[in-house]
Recover the amino acids of this structure.
């Protein structure tokens, strides 16, 4: 597993953080990576996340990276470390209420569409900047943005999409937060494109298959 050490060193050298995407992986496989020192893991389905969270050590920081349905929010607010996939205002409302019930502040990334293809999830940037009001949500800590580039071999296209996300983050900070230290995170980059993402200023890469090997069928 010295490959894992090389990967984490490379990511750390870019002042970036690794979120190990453990969806479809077994508890045993996750524990192997945990024992190498990894503490941040990402899951995309609430049910699977709950099962793993119950079985794995308490000092894991769990990140939700997949689309979140409003009726499932209450199950994760008691423990979730960060939600990367906050993609609509109604969902923000729900997370805010359930966070209050859980007496916790929840770390939130705003997922924004950057891919050209018509992806299902994510804010349209213009809708977001015109309709969002962070002070509406007293129990949420807005930490930054998340985005997914088009799945393509065209590296310059991927790079341009990541640059778009960096610009969106800057504009949101200028309008709403004016604090680079608080609104600081840019979650972008996966197994196939994390190197480009880091070059463009990613602060969190979400990497699954490169660490765990090919995914089990979900
Ligand atoms: C699965 C997934 C990843 C990781 O993908 P890999 O290609 O396996 O690295 C990253 N982000 C999201 C939102 C995912 O669903």
């Amino acid at each position: 597993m010295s490959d894992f050490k090389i990967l984490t060193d490379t990511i750390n050298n870019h002042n970036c953080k690794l979120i190990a995407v453990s969806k479809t992986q077994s508890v045993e496989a996750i524990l192997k990576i945990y024992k190498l020192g990894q503490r941040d893991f990402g899951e995309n389905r609430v049910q699977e996340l709950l099962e793993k969270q119950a079985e794995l050590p308490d000092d894991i920081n769990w990140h939700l990276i997949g689309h979140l349905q409003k009726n499932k929010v209450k199950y994760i607010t008691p423990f979730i470390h960060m939600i990367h996939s906050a993609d609509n205002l109604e969902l923000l409302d729900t997370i805010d209420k359930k966070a209050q019930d859980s007496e916790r502040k929840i770390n939130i990334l705003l997922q924004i569409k950057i891919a050209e293809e018509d992806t299902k999830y994510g804010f349209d940037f213009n809708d977001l900047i015109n309709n969002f009001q962070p002070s509406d949500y007293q129990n949420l800590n807005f930490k930054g943005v998340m985005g997914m580039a088009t799945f393509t071999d065209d590296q310059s296209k991927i790079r341009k999409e990541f640059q778009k996300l960096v610009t969106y983050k800057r504009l949101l900070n200028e309008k709403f937060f004016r604090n680079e230290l608080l609104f600081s995170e840019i979650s972008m980059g996966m197994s196939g494109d994390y190197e480009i993402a880091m070059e463009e200023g990613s602060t969190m890469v979400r990497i699954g298959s490169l660490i765990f090997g090919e995914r089990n069928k979900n």
Notes: Strands lie at 17-21, 40-43, 61-64, 82-86, 106-111, 140-146, 185-187, 204-207. The pocket of pyridoxal-5'-phosphate is lined by residues 21, 23, 44, 65-66, 190-192, 206-210 (CB under 6 Å). The longest helix spans residues 155-177. The chain is about 40% helix and 15% strand.
